[in-house]
Task: inverse folding
């Protein structure tokens, strides 16, 4: 929708959700959510109207993909990066570099 329509911003709270054991968020876990974030990043990074792609990648890595990885452990991180590589290997490398960078 964002690629073909106009987007507006509103500061008002327009949506709420609740988490429960049967919810999609609970069932998919952190790897499912972060894979969805990576898919969104992949879509955005292919758009010609986005000119600062390194900035976009850094923003997604820092704010959506990196948080919580230490808590999840090394095995979870390896599984997550494997998912990323299956979607887009080049982008996965860039995200991995950002996740491991100190900045």
Result:
């Amino acid at each position: 929708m964002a690629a073909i329509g106009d987007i507006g911003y509103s500061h008002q709270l327009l949506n709420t959700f609740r988490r429960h054991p049967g919810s999609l968020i609970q069932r998919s876990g952190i790897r499912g959510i972060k894979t969805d974030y990576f898919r969104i990043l992949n879509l955005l990074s292919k758009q010609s109207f986005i000119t600062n792609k390194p900035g976009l990648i850094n923003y997604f890595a820092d704010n959506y993909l990196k948080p919580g990885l230490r808590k999840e452990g090394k095995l979870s991180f390896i599984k997550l990066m494997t998912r990323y590589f299956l979607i887009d290997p080049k982008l996965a490398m860039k995200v991995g570099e950002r996740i491991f960078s100190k900045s």
Remarks:
- The chain has a mean pLDDT of 81.
- Residues 31 and 80 are 6 Å apart (CA to CA).
- Residues 30-100 form one domain.
- Helices lie at 24-45, 53-65, 69-72, 74-87, 89-100.
